[in-house]
Amino acid sequence: MLAEFSSAVDAVQCAVEAQAAWAEANDRVPPDRRVKFRIGVHVGDVMVRAGDLFGDGVNIAARLQSSAAADGVCISGAAYGHVRKVLPLTFH
């Protein structure tokens, strides 16, 4: 799934809340049936064509997603710069 946000803060907050909701839902499912998601967040330009998103911003977010831990969120330095003083989260 790919989502575009007008705010890095909104994107990271949504990612964290989504992971928490999926973790809660997984608690009610046997371990062999659990689905774990990885989320990547980046701040960058994207192009919209026929309802699809393209561009370096999308490509970087996809690379970050593949680097995230299962049930985790990986954000770029650009996204971190926007959210580090706003969201009460611990970043590694």
Summarize the model shown.
The chain is α+β, with helices and mostly antiparallel strands. It is 41% helix and 15% strand. A hairpin with a 2-residue loop joins β2 (47-49) and β3 (52-54).
Explain this structure.
The chain has helices at 8-26, 56-67, 77-83; strands at residues 38-41, 47-49, 52-54, 72-75. It contains three helices and four strands, in the order αβββαβα. The chain has a two-stranded parallel ribbon. It has a two-stranded antiparallel ribbon with strand order 2-3. The protein has 92 residues and is α+β, with helices and mostly antiparallel strands. Helices cover 41% and strands 15% of the residues. The model has no long low-confidence stretch (mean pLDDT 93). The longest helix is centred in the first third of the chain and has 19 residues, at 8-26. The radius of gyration is 14 Å and the shape is globular. A hairpin with a 2-residue loop joins strand 2 and strand 3.
Which properties best describe this structure?
alpha+beta, two-stranded parallel sheet
The Rg value, from CA coordinates, equals 14 Å
Number of E-type strands: 4
The H/E string reads HEEEHEH
Shape: globular
Low-confidence stretches: none
Calculate the terminal CA-CA distance, rounded to whole Å: 24 Å
Strand order of the largest sheet: 1-4
Q: Can you give the helix content as a percent range?
A: 40-55%
Mean pLDDT: 93
Strand content: 15-25%
Q: Which structural class do you get from the secondary structure elements?
A: alpha+beta
Report on the biggest sheet: 2 strands, parallel
Number of alpha- plus pi-helical segments: 3
